Amino acid sequence: MRDAIIVGAGPAGSYLSHLLSKQGYDVLNLEEHEEVGRPVECTGVVTERVFRYVRSRSIANTVSGANIVFPGNRTIKIGKQEKTIVIYRDSFDKDVSGMAIGSGADLRLGSRVRSVRVNDGYAEVEFRESGELISERARIVIGADGANSIVRKSLYGHRPSRVVSTYQVDASFTMDDQDSVSVFLGRDFSNGFFGWAVPTGNITRIGLGSIGKGALPYFLKMIRQFNPEPKILAITGGPIPISYMHRTSGNRSLLVGDAGGIVKPLTGGGIYTGIVSAYWAARAISEGFESDRLDQRFLQRYEKYWKSEIGRELRIDGMIQKFYAALNDRYLSRLYRSISSDRSIDIINSKGDIDYPSKLALQLFLKNPSIALSFLRGN
């Protein structure tokens, strides 16, 4: 019997496989696709914090600013000293998986999980590999298999309450400003979320997210913002949960990253939060192995661990995101007038942090109470 079966070889699953294998545990890492990192379903914008955990040379570009485009094509230009990193996501995933394999993890590609069950003695995972149906047992099973997690569906029975539909392309378009990400706000580009364009040299990643409505119709409007209209080289997309699960631990099971909705609600970014959740999952699991306790009550410490680092941030960001999602274009125009002053832009430049954006939001509300007041009066 294995020590752990980890379903999914994205950054969270591979990093957890690395941490447990490095401690000498027998880890089976199952990946449904034939290649780690493919298909690419991520914009790949991270901060340097990620590289404190992961050894990778997957950097495609670095940016230090953003052009925030409001309704009516009114734009705020912001910038900061700290660089934001644009990665080649497929290469990044391979690097994290390489760390896991180097530590002794058993990676199985093309292994699609069919069912997961647990009892008081073990967890059992049934998966299909090369046409053969295989069953493996382990002391614990971890769902690191994304927004449509089979582990979550099998053992937890429901999904995060707020999910963003996304559509993104790699386009043959070179942005004039290679040092800034463009962010598009308003109902022309999204329902309750936003659009983006990320420069990576001769290719630009253009996409958007939408809540409650399909993303494609918005994308077809958005692509016309670029002149000449770029040629599409690759298309990706899929759901992103932006609210974490009420419970991310159970009897002989845990959920990490997107599988548990441990994602940044304001941006949909899940690499950093997934790796943080994997770090704390490794601690809770190793403590469970040492104590021979993998029951639900004992594994609740995992939730306390990851929430102690990022739980407050995700909770506040979720509240802000719901506030933002309710805004119409008229209110967004008021918002533009409120935060386009030199004082507000100075605050954004000094406090902006895509991993911990609540600090910036709270500062802006304190310095611009009219933002909240006008919303309370009605959009």
Structure description:
The protein is α/β, with parallel strands linked by helices and 379 residues long. The protein has 3 domains: 2-41 and 89-160 and 246-322, 3-Layer(bba) Sandwich (FAD/NAD(P)-binding domain); 45-87 and 162-241, D-Amino Acid Oxidase, Chain A, domain 2; 328-376, no CATH class. The chain is built from 10 helices and 16 strands. Helix 1 links the parallel strand 1 and strand 2 (27-30).
Features:
10 helices, about 375 residues, alpha/beta, 3 domains, D-Amino Acid Oxidase, Chain A, domain 2, single chain, eight-stranded mixed β-sheet, FAD/NAD(P)-binding domain
Secondary structure: elements and pairs:
Blueprint: E1 2-7, H1 11-22, E2 27-30, E3 45-46, E4 59-70, E5 74-87, H2 89-102, E6 106-108, E7 111-118, E8 123-129, E9 132-143, H3 150-155, E10 163-172, E11 180-184, E12 195-200, E13 203-211, H4 216-222, E14 231-241, E15 249-250, E16 253-255, H5 271-291, H6 296-325, H7 329-339, H8 342-351, H9 358-367, H10 369-376
Parallel strand pairs: 1-2, 1-9, 2-6, 4-11, 9-16
Antiparallel strand pairs: 3-5, 4-5, 7-8, 8-9, 10-13, 10-14, 11-12, 12-13, 15-16
Helix pairs in contact: 1-2, 1-5, 5-6, 7-10, 8-9, 9-10
What is the terminal-to-terminal distance? 58 Å
State the CATH class of the largest domain. Alpha Beta
The number of E-state strands comes to 16
The DSSP helix count reads: 10
Give the CATH superfamily of the largest domain: FAD/NAD(P)-binding domain
Query: CATH topology of the largest domain, what is it called?
Result: FAD/NAD(P)-binding domain
Q: What number of domains? A: 3
Which sheet architecture does the biggest sheet show? 8 strands, mixed
Order of helices and strands: EHEEEEHEEEEHEEEEHEEEHHHHHH
Helix fraction, binned, reads 25-40%
- What is the averaged pLDDT score? 92
Q: Which strand-content bin applies to the residues?
A: 25-35%
Low-confidence parts, pLDDT < 50 over ≥5 residues?
A: none
Structural class: alpha/beta
Specify the overall morphology: globular
Radius of gyration: 21 Å
Oligomeric organization of the protein chains? single chain
Q: Just name the CATH architecture of the largest domain.
A: 3-Layer(bba) Sandwich
